[in-house]
Amino acid sequence: MTEQETFEKLLPLLREVTGARAEQVTMASNLMDDLGAESIDLLDLSFLIEEAFGITIEADEFERQATEQIPDGQYERDGLLTAEALEELKKALPEVPAEKFRPGLKKIEVPSVLNVGVFVHLIQRKVAQKQEAVDA
């Protein structure tokens, strides 16, 4: 699926979960700040994505990807993300503006930086991985 096809299939799911109008939703739209999603809405969105696209999204998907890159390092300290964790999250989530990964970001705040582009690209990767497994 192309980025545009994925976005168009994701759009009604985002609208259902957030109540946003179609013109409010862009690749750069932050799910919480721009579209008004709450933590529970992200969980609902994950379920809808799984149903619509036939893929699985883990709750700690992005954090797990980052922690795998710092095996001897520390991901968080007293609830705050370490400098190493912030750098790995920047790499794992290139769709998110780098300034969102500021020192003092709490682990529980990671969902607040997610935008539509993160989900579009995650869906594309997961759908491609699923297809590769079928083709193998």
3D structure, described in words:
With 136 residues, the protein is mostly helical. It has a single domain, classed as ACP-like (Non-ribosomal Peptide Synthetase Peptidyl Carrier Protein, Chain A, Orthogonal Bundle), CATH 1.10.1200. It is 51% helix and 3% strand. The protein is built from 5 helices and 2 strands; from the N terminus they run H-H-H-E-E-H-H. The chain has helices spanning 3-18, 39-53, 61-68, 83-92, 116-135, and strands at 76-77, 80-81. The protein has a two-stranded antiparallel ribbon with strand order 1-2. Strand 1 and strand 2 form a beta hairpin. Helix 1 (3-18) packs across helix 2. It is globular and about 40 Å long.
Distance between the termini: 19 Å
Instruction: Report the uncertain regions.
Output: none
Q: By CATH's scheme, which homologous superfamily applies? A: ACP-like
Strand count, sense and barrel status of the largest sheet are: 2 strands, antiparallel
Which strand order spans the largest sheet, edge to edge or round the barrel?
Answer: 1-2
Structurally, how many domains make up the residues? 1
- The CATH topology is given as Non-ribosomal Peptide Synthetase Peptidyl Carrier Protein, Chain A
What overall form do the CA principal axes indicate?
globular
Count of β-strands:
2
Gyration radius from CA atoms, angstroms: 15 Å
CATH class (first level) name: Mainly Alpha
Structural class of the secondary structure composition? mainly alpha
- Which architecture name does CATH use? Orthogonal Bundle
Q: Report the average pLDDT across residues.
A: 92
Q: What percent of residues adopt helix (DSSP H or I)?
A: 40-55%
